[in-house]
């Protein structure tokens, strides 16, 4: 066998080996993605089972219906989250190509998935801010609640609406609670509003989670006349807020001059 033949054989062998390596890598990625989907489908089945149990409990138990309805709503929203996670498959990008790492990939995803779906509350600071806004004895007109990791905390409170507008960025998910003076010169009264902010850069999965997270924080922030969902800075407008409150509370009569 001459040198040229040996070179061609070695080149062909190397090309075949490269193809085998690529096929192995693709196979490992497919297996890892399958594990990811299986994990979320299993979680989805468990959540649907819990949902069914809550429906039965709601039908059979005559007391504490509000709590049961809240739990059912949270479970339903978790189902939506799981569908979004399965559909997006964003966590698949972290899957390793090494077969020995497949199990760790699966375990890591399961852990992170549960963390992202479980939101906690800093109840003391949220309740304190909520009561501060509601109190006639304090100048506080608004409070904003944002995500600190997997917890919702009170990130700011104040009395200037211009400052309130600066609390929401395109990457943020947040909630706001406001006290606005309504009525006319003959009948002034305070009205309260709850707002949900989802910035335009927020991912599909985090958007899906907002319905669940909103239900959780509304266990504390429960007294308001109007609820709005906002997705652009143009919607954070005090006149639009007051118009929404007027529509919810009926007409105002007087000179038409309003105190801002």
Automatic annotation (TrEMBL):
Keywords: Coiled coil. It comes from the Eukaryota. Residues 41-85 form a coiled coil. CDD domains: ADF_coactosin_like. InterPro entries: ADF-H, ADF-H/Gelsolin-like_dom_sf. Residues 90-111 are annotated as: Disordered. The keyword Coiled coil applies. SMART domains: ADF (SM00102). Residues 118-246 form the ADF-H domain. PANTHER family: COACTOSIN-LIKE PROTEIN (PTHR10829:SF29), CORTACTIN AND DREBRIN (PTHR10829). This is Coactosin-like protein isoform X1. It comes from Galleria mellonella. The gene is LOC113509239.
């Amino acid at each position: 066998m001459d040198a040229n033949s040996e070179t061609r054989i070695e080149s062909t062998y190397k090309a075949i080996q490269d193809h085998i390596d690529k096929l192995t890598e693709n196979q490992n990625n497919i297996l890892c993605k399958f594990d990811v989907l299986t994990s979320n489908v299993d979680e989805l089945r468990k959540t649907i089972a819990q949902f069914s149990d809550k429906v039965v409990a709601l039908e059979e138990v005559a007391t504490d219906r509000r709590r049961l309805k809240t739990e059912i709503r949270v479970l339903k929203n978790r189902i939506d989250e799981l569908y979004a996670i399965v559909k997006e498959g964003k966590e698949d990008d972290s899957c390793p190509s090494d077969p020995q790492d497949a199990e760790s990939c699966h375990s890591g995803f399961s852990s992170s998935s549960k963390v992202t779906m479980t939101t906690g509350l800093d109840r003391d600071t949220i309740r304190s801010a909520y009561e501060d806004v509601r109190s006639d004895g304090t100048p506080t007109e608004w409070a904003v609640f944002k995500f600190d990791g997997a917890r919702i905390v009170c990130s700011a409170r104040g009395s200037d609406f211009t400052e309130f507008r600066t609390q929401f960025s395109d990457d943020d998910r947040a909630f706001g609670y406001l006290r606005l003076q309504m009525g006319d010169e003959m009948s002034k009264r305070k009205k309260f509003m709850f707002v949900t902010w989802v910035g335009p850069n927020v991912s599909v999965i985090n958007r899906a989670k907002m319905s669940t997270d909103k239900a959780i924080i509304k266990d504390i922030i429960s007294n308001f006349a109007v609820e709005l969902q906002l997705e652009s800075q143009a919607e954070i407008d005090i006149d639009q807020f007051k118009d929404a409150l007027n529509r919810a509370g009926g007409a105002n009569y007087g000179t038409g001059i309003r105190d801002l």
